[in-house]
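Entry: EamA domain-containing protein
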Amino acid sequence: MSISMTLMFLSVLLGSNLGDVSALVSINVVVAALLGRIFLKEALRWVHLVSVAASLLGALLISRPEALFGKSAQESIEGGSLAWLGYVFGPIAGFFDACSLICARKCQNSSEWHVAFAYYGQSCILLILLMFVPLGLPLGQLKSVAAVMAAPWEAIGWLALLTAVDIPNMVLFASGAKILPAAISATTDAATRIVCGYLASVLLFDGRMDELRWAGSGLMLASVLVMAAVREQPEEKPHVEMTEQTTPGCEENGSGAVEIMGDDGNDDAISSIGSVASFAASEFIDLEPSQRRRPFRDRFMEQLPQLRSRKTAARQTDEAKSSSIPSPQPLGATAPMASI
């Protein structure tokens, strides 16, 4: 998340249009959907295609990238010589934004405040390093260091205000990312960022909303509603009951616990099912995380108590049978009978 934010800041400082950068960051929706096809080898459902298409089309209509809609005279004056780098950094920032959603989903046991402060700690390091990198930024942004030194208390006040506003924002972002599937989080994040950004531009900076931008805002909201309304469940696989015959790799040790005995490489094959890539892909294929197909190891671990009780019952039955059978007499005990 910190890399994504730094790249977005850098794109704007280089002279790229803020709306264009926001639209390109929405590539996280596309990246997220493609993960499902690449890693899980499953076709995208039509609802995913409709939502992604509406989100991308809305982003294009709202921001109107110069490569497709041309460049106005005002943008030609304001744009810098390195503004084209913003169109490269935008998709990269969107990719890291999607990765942050996946990390939040994986960190279910971590606190939202831990995620927020980790994000701010990493962002501080990256932004401090960015201050000393002379990339030929337009409009003399590097002079901002002198402005901070001239009015340090004012700078500290603005920094404290931004931190007080943004930390709860990051906490809420992490909380939502942990609860909702990443597909819904990515689409909602992209739509809200663009729509609210242009709404603030109109209300606070006397911006203008034309027909294309209104249509784009409607498409972005429609993509959010479509993605949020979907609750498709994957196909349920037939349940395979774990028995002693179907689990030859299990042995019971002397303490009564069941140990998993297997060949080398089996653990890697089983754990690869629950890899981060597969988890990320499943976040955008199966939208009900509670109904998602679980790895074999998880299902096996749930069967361990039942398997152990069966083994214990079988051992007790064998002991009972062995105690009921009379023990064989020694050979010498039958000698008197033979002599008679």
